[in-house]
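User: Let's play a game. I give you a shape written as tokens, and you guess the letters that built it. Ready? Here's round one.
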């Protein structure tokens, strides 16, 4: 049996004041679960933090949260870099970085 899964990825700034949102559709040979990580060309994703089932679309919905890491000064992985890296791993979306409410 195969399962349709819609993944959403939220990439948040280190201070959690800005975020970008991406998505990816996959078919898995098993039911997705909290803690699942995707093995991607640039390394493993952060773990899935929630799983929900849509009876209407017969699809699982999984959410992954990624937070910009604090790096030594002069060595920053900014949101644009993290978004581009996610896109290179097949994630779609993130045409805009959103300012989040305080």
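Assistant: Ready! My guess for every position:
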């Amino acid at each position: 049996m195969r399962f349709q899964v819609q993944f959403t990825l939220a990439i948040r700034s280190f201070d959690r004041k800005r975020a970008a949102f991406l998505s990816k559709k996959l078919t898995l040979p098993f039911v997705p679960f909290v803690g699942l990580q995707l093995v991607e060309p640039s390394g493993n994703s952060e773990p899935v933090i929630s799983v929900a089932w849509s009876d209407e679309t017969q699809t699982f919905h999984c959410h992954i949260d990624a937070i910009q890491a604090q790096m030594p000064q002069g060595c920053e992985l900014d949101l644009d870099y993290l978004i581009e890296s996610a896109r290179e791993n097949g994630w779609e979306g993130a045409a805009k970085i959103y300012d989040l409410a305080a």
